[in-house]
Hints:
Layout: H1 3-12, E1 14-16, H2 21-47, H3 52-69, E2 80-82, E3 87-89, E4 109-110, E5 115-121, H4 134-151, E6 157-165, E7 172-184, E8 187-196, E9 199-209, H5 217-224, E10 226-227
Parallel strand pairs: 1-2, 3-10
Antiparallel strand pairs: 2-3, 4-5, 5-7, 6-9, 7-8, 8-9
The chain binds Palmitoyl-CoA (PKZ).
Amino acid sequence: xxxxxxxxxxxxxxxxxxxxxxxxxxxxxxxxxxxxxxxxxxxxxxxxxxxxxxxxxxxxxxxxxxxxxxxxxxxxxxxxxxxxxxxxxxxxxxxxxxxxxxxxxxxxxxxxxxxxxxxxxxxxxxxxxxxxxxxxxxxxxxxxxxxxxxxxxxxxxxxxxxxxxxxxxxxxxxxxxxxxxxxxxxxxxxxxxxxxxxxxxxxxxxxxxxxxxxxxxxxxxxxxxxxx
Length: 228
Ligand SMILES: CCCCCCCCCCCCCCCC(=O)SCCNC(=O)CCNC(=O)[C@H](O)C(C)(C)COP(=O)(O)OP(=O)(O)OC[C@H]1O[C@@H](n2cnc3c(N)ncnc32)[C@H](O)[C@@H]1OP(=O)(O)O
């Protein structure tokens, strides 16, 4: 596929889909509840100790649920959708998406100088025994630093992300802070820290770049709007 065709496809996953605020709130609630249920199922799957016949029964029920959910579905991804009320939604996002049970999910608080997030990473995010997987930590940082750039109105895609793991992060509650350190043209340099009750566990820095294909119209839309 040519670069032009790829860029065109990529722009296409940023779509206008105008939905009245009340209806949108209802849809968000339904999506959030379903994702919460499936997230609980994932956790139960990792930790269960029931006998094989109970697992067989659970699989039957899960199969039925999968079939129901598949009756109507989006083609490949949810993408990002823009509303005329000044919001946009990326509900499939792997870290924040309210439709996505893989997402921990991260819910950021935005301040003028930084973004913060508190989240509980349970057994489904394990790497070394009892500790959070390093790749999950990297993903959390990627999103947090990216969110900081978006909040500072200099959003971009991750060009480079570097992490220093200072000590193991025990499964459980984590606190992450991220901020924009400086901006050079289309590049925003962001930093972040992850801590727990044990203190500082990891630090990150990254470069976030507004890609060529998004400069202009899509950039304006992302900059002008808020959402989840
Ligand atoms: C609207 C849509 C997008 C934004 C909306 C996001 C909003 C919402 C954010 C929510 C938070 C998301 C947080 C998760 C973020 C991911 O997960 S992003 C997914 C992982 N990253 C990727 O897939 C990126 C893949 N790479 C690319 O798309 C492109 O190579 C890049 C990195 C965007 C570069 O784009 P490009 O248009 O080729 O850039 P180009 O004009 O050649 O270079 C611009 C400058 O950047 C430098 N540069 C290029 N590549 C790199 C690199 N990898 N490292 C360091 N510097 C580099 C160049 O040297 C140049 O520097 P100067 O000469 O200006 O000094």
